[in-house]
User: Fold this.
Amino acid sequence: MTSPYSSRKYTFIMLLIITLIIFLGKIFYIQIIDDYYKIWAISNTQRKLTIYPPRGLIIDRHGKIMVSNVPAYDLMFIPYQSSEFDTVELSKILEIDVTNLKKIIEKAKKNSRYQPYPVASQISINIAAALKEKLYKYKGFYLQGRTIRHYTLPAGGHLLGYISEVDKKFLKNNPSYKMGDLVGITGLEKTYEQYLKGQKGASIVLVDVHNRIVGKFADGKYDTIAIPGKNIITGIDWELQYYGEQLMKNKRGSIVAIEPSTGEILILVSSPSYDPSLLTGFSKNKNFKKLVNDPQKPLFNRALMAQYPPGSTFKMVNALIGLNENILKPGTSYGCSKGVTVGPIHVGCHPHPSPLQMEEAIQYSCNSYFTQAFLHILGNKKYKNTEEAFKVWRNYVTAFGFGTILGSDLAYELKGIVPTVQYYDKYFGKHRWKPLTIVSLGIGQGELSLTPLQLANYACILANRGFYYTPHVVREINDKNFNNSKYKIKHVVPINKSYFEIICNAMQKVVESGTARIAKIDSIVVCGKTGTAQNPHGKDHSLFIAFAPKDNPKIAICVVVENAGFGATYAAPIASLIIEKYLKRKVKRKELEKRMLEADLINNNDTLNNDKEHQ
Assistant:
């Protein structure tokens, strides 16, 4: 006979089984599927720290360190570990506004409850020390060690560039980086990021209830080491770079100097500039905003991005084209009576002997000579019309690296402007322009605009008698992936090499007895050419290109000083001081040096307006 309680027994067993299944299911969910409690338990005893590698050093041509690293810290925050804390006290320790701190905390919570978020980056050792004493009050916060850039001289901002934290836009295209990582934004830091950055490591540490590190997890068995970034050796002369920036203080413009035999950039100065240390450390964001809003535009790299009419420095290009096209001979002469009038156009000039042959025309920078020479170049009878002759002329000009990106290892290089047939057709109408229409190109004016880097490279071409190597900064990196073979390719200008000697002789006369006598240096044969670039927005720009010594040149240079008048007023003396400093390692002409160092053109303290030299 069946017991009346048997059904109850089975019901009880079923309930027990169901309860057990639910209980096991919950355990499975907690331990396997939902890792919240696991994370909570582990994170209260363990913490994974990122070990940031020091970025590679940047070293000059003499072995001097330009950029190194110093210790700093990031204050990291894991939202789900936190509890209520005193934001006012923390803001005072960090020396930031409490409202901004609250915004950062909220941003961290929205980003991820579990992922560490940098509340304050690159804080100093002193602030970090003050934090360590009170970190037990701030659950979910911890200090992450790292390094920041250190500059041995307050120079080279545009050349070296700066680094900054990655943003979400960058992370989308570069998944190997993580929030809080730093990346090169400009200059060498940007171009050589892959070599300089190194490889991150990791360390798992044990922490106590007071949020203090008490040791390594598993004796460091699961740690990985950080691999430092590669050091890069440059062709820069660090002492000369600093000297050039001092000479350009309180002036707008730039200096670019190159070693002609290699294409290595010796200095690259853009002024106004900035101390690169301003863009490191905890105050970098505040300093960056100041630099962006500075009306003098200190972040604008004039050496690579400013574009100027080359003025009379361009006259040697037309001389070489005329020689190569058999339009000119070294003995070809033109008269000049304070200028020349051709049809309805008058091109002015300054007093000098007349008539002049080619070398003398360069020596005295005769506008009349090169106006007439240009008209004959574009009127060459072997070409069927002006457009065809202009295309030939333009091909020569672009062979000098003008109107093109040279391809240096510095970011944001611009190509300048060399007008095309299409440009003039659009502006004047097809077949409605003639050599006289564009005659200002003969003296480096009109629609022509070049960068200081291009002009310095042009000085290299003249120094090398017809060829150049692509300008570049970095000489060597000890890395199997580094390849600088493209900087060893010789680019030859399609002009007979013998003609360059005529130009070099003329440039020597410019310095010894022509428009740039102020650039003469005792015991060094300097070849140079002054230029005065017309500026529709104010006073003309002062330009000078040069190389030295004449035979076996060691340095080629371009100096541009904006709104400074004649080429010999500021650009030529500054260039000659750089050449003297580089070749002799000291400057004897102390009075000239003092004048250039003290000259203030930004605040209109121009003491050299009465200089008689021209172009």
